[in-house]
Amino acid sequence: MILKLSPVRSDIHLSVAKTGDILEVNGVALDFSRLADGATLPAEAVGCNFVIAPVERINGDLVLTLMLPHDADAPQGARFPVDLYPADGQVQLPGLELGDRLSATAGVIDWSQVITAEAKAQAAAEQLLATVVSEQAQRRAVADAAIAPLQDAVELDEATEAEAALLIDWKRYRVALSRLPDQEGYPNDIDWPTPPA
Questions:
Q1: Using one digit for the tens of pLDDT, what is the confidence trace for 78-99?
Q2: Using an 8 Å Cβ cutoff, are 117 and 39 in contact?
Q3: Number of domains forming the structure of the chain
């Protein structure tokens, strides 16, 4: 377990103890053992005001961010705390005294809000696809804008040889853009066509 601490000037009491994946905060036991590797639990899903950031399991380590209350004359270690890697038992928080360990009651965690590693991967894939489709549409709009006047010139029989050749190049480019989804590795690996000069 990795405890990240966010210092806040406050007189609120904080007592923390750890047993495996269970973190007791002021006598409320929060059992994070169900959190799978790569998954994230939003802070609002945890019934504890001291948990102020999403809880994650990264490479097997449970990572939590707790609000760390401190006095006005708190030592430097409490005002600028480093990450803690606590062993089981009471956790010595910087600037706070170890008090008596409170008898724990079960805390509430809304597991319906967990974001799995698979859901994160799917969201990232959907975002990548949306970005690629947007880029493709922008490039297509550039091609359409270039093709329109050249096509008009050809249809009106007013195109020069260079304009007629350029129209063909732009149309080939537009066709290549439309065939991007057929590329192997799309949308992760794309060989974008080069627009005509």
A1: 999 999 999 999 999 998 877 7
A2: yes
A3: 2
